[in-house]
Design brief:
With about 110 residues, the chain is an all-alpha fold. It contains four helices and no strands. The protein is elongated.
Length: about 110
């Protein structure tokens, strides 16, 4: 008698595998995350997808959606933030004016000792 061949379900992700996937997804650009999510949704909608893969793809899709939300929020904050002001170089006259003030402070501390 022949036994039915049923694929054994994958073991759940180990903590290291989850962290590795999360790190990879966090490093993706917004466009790459959108592509990943579209691909995961297509795979989940496919009836031929082996049931053993479904939990792993669902995990990746969930985290990719969270990472996409964070990346879009960060991009919106960057777009709204004013550009940083260029540092103003101190002119020679300001530097010269600051030097005597520093000398006076040094003399006062020397007198106090």
């Amino acid at each position: 008698m022949q036994k039915d061949i049923v694929p054994k379900p994958f073991e759940p992700f180990t903590l290291e595998e989850e962290r590795a996937l999360v790190d990879k997804l966090d490093a993706l650009s917004v466009a790459s995350l959108e592509g990943y999510i579209a691909s995961a949704r297509a795979a989940l909608g496919n009836n031929a997808l082996a049931a053993t893969w479904r939990p792993r793809i669902e995990f990746g899709a969930r985290h990719a959606e969270q990472a996409l939300t964070k990346a879009q929020a960060a991009a919106a904050r960057e777009a709204m933030a004013p550009p940083p002001a260029a540092p103003v170089a101190a002119s020679k006259s300001k530097k010269a004016a600051a030097a005597p003030a520093a000398d006076k402070e040094a003399e006062q501390t020397a007198d106090e000792e």
